[in-house]
Amino acid sequence: MASRRGIAVTAGMLAVVTAASFAIWLVPQGPPGGTVVVSDHAANLDGVEDRRAALAAGVSELLDGVRAGDVSAGEHAELARESAVIAKSELAGLLRTQAPPEWRASYAAAAESLRELGAYIS
Fold first, then answer.
1. CA angle at residue 114 from 104 to 90, to 5 degrees?
2. pLDDT tens for residues 17-32?
3. Residue 95 contacts residue 33 (beta carbons within 8 Å)
4. Do 20 and 42 have their domain in common?
5. 45 and 74 share a domain?
6. Does residue 12 sit in the same domain as residue 62?
7. In terms of domains, do 2 and 62 share one?
8. 47 and 91 share a domain?
9. % of the chain beyond a pLDDT of 70
10. Residue 54 and residue 45: Cα distance in Å, rounded?
11. Can you tell me whether residue 40 is helix, strand or coil?
């Protein structure tokens, strides 16, 4: 039969191991937000530009809908906020990418384009 002391020691060890496991799982292992690892920078920038162009086209269509009276002011405000969040998310992903020196100018231009789109939407 197990003694109380043995059960207490076993329970204590279990608690320590469990706490250590959760601490390792919960403590961030890298910089805040992490980094984005990209192997094909040309394709990544093409994708960012395609998403930026689609977002800009959507904003343009939204404004046309407001002018035509098809979109209410409330819908416009909500969709503009969502579009701004998408632009900021794209920008954040672009800024987290660790680009090599030969791609930094292209990434900076794409980031500036997204900033301008975000300012236009706002």
1. 85
2. 888 877 777 766 665 5
3. no
4. no
5. yes
6. no
7. no
8. yes
9. 89
10. 14
11. coil
- pLDDT recorded at residue 105: 92
62 and 21 belong to one structural domain: no
State the burial class of residue 49 (Cβ atoms within 10 Å of its Cβ: 0-12, 13-18, 19+). middle
Residues 39 and 22 in one domain: no
Tens digit of pLDDT for each residue in 48-73?
A: 898 889 988 888 888 888 888 887 88
CA 53-82-34 angle, to 5 degrees, is 80
> Which neighbouring-strand residues pair with 36?
97
User: Hey, which of 36-40, 73-77, 106-110 has the most confident mean pLDDT?
Assistant: 106-110
Domain that holds residue 10: 1-30
* Distances 72 to 22, 77, 86, 113 between C-alpha atoms, Å: 49, 9, 21, 28
Q: Is 73 helix (H, G, I), strand (E, B) or coil?
A: helix
Domain count, the chain: 2
Q: Which two tokens stand for residue 115?
A: 């900033």
Higher pLDDT, 112 or 36: 112
Rounded Cα distance between 95 and 30, Å, is 16
The pTM (predicted TM-score) of the whole model is: 0.64
What confidence score (pLDDT) does residue 112 get?
92
Other beta carbons within 10 Å of 103: 17
